[in-house]
Amino acid sequence: MNRIKITLANAGNYFYLKNLTVNCNLEDFNSSIAEYNNYLTNEALRSMSDHVAFTWLLTEKANGKIAAYMSLIMDAIKLSFSEKEFHRLNYPFRTIPALKIAKLAVDQSFSDKYKGIGTFMVNSAERLAWACNTAYCACRFLTVDADLEHDEGVLSFYEKNDFIKNVEFYNKNRKTISMRKDLYK
Ligand SMILES: CC(C)(COP(=O)(O)OP(=O)(O)OC[C@H]1O[C@@H](n2cnc3c(N)ncnc32)[C@H](O)[C@@H]1OP(=O)(O)O)[C@@H](O)C(=O)NCCC(=O)NCCS
After folding, report:
1. C-beta separation of 55 from 44 below 8 A
2. What whole-number distance in Å separates Cα of residue 137 and Cα of residue 144?
């Protein structure tokens, strides 16, 4: 079957992107990783009311099912001298502001019908960061701790979305890899 490719241009025909609220039915969400399902069902609302993570849901218009979610938090990353040079950030400090994708997951059942949902969520986070820069506060990078413990392929997903590894936090023994995407390059 030909899958529909979801992009920023057509996503509105199929989905709503909205904040998590108490009224959302989260029970049916089923990504390939139980930990991500548990987080959405048991932790996401509490994290939101405690202001430690802000969750966005992608909901299918046709039947109200949740296709994907992401939780965003503010972040700051330390860059090495060469990384700062690479991004043309000639400042005496090492810490640069960022927006972090703390959680991201797509429901498996939607992968049969659509492609590009994960990328759409990353692009939506990017849009939110740009909006922040326009009116509220500065944010140069999108960041993520790519979760290799559950799926090593996720590195390739983030690389395809223009994330690169952070040297400062790179450690072969870690279960996650800290990555960043320059929002202005
Ligand atoms: C990782 C995840 C969010 C990707 O969502 P998705 O909707 O499948 O991603 P997209 O369709 O936008 O994929 C974009 C590209 O990345 C590739 N890709 C996506 N997931 C991949 C994976 N797990 N391994 C290897 N490549 C992957 C796709 O094949 C596609 O490549 P193409 O452009 O060459 O066709 C989704 O698979 C998921 O929810 N995984 C379980 C939870 C998880 O690991 N979250 C990330 C935690 S850091």
Report:
1. yes
2. 19
Residue written as token pair 């108490």? 22
- pTM of the predicted model, to two decimals? 0.96
Q: How far is the centre of ligand 1, averaged over its atoms, from the C-alpha of 87 (Å)? A: 26
Residue nearest atom 46 in ligand 1 by C-alpha distance: 104
Give, as one character, the DSSP assignment of residue 6.
Answer: P
CA separation for the pair 80, 95 (Å, rounded): 9
Spans of the chain below 70 pLDDT: 168-173
Residue nearest to atom 13 of ligand 1 (CA): 116
**Where does 92-134 show beta strands of DSSP type E?**
95-106, 114-115
Q: What is the distance in angstroms between the CA of the first residue and the CA of the last residue of the chain? A: 36
Residue pLDDT, tens place only, 44-65: 999 999 999 999 999 999 999 9
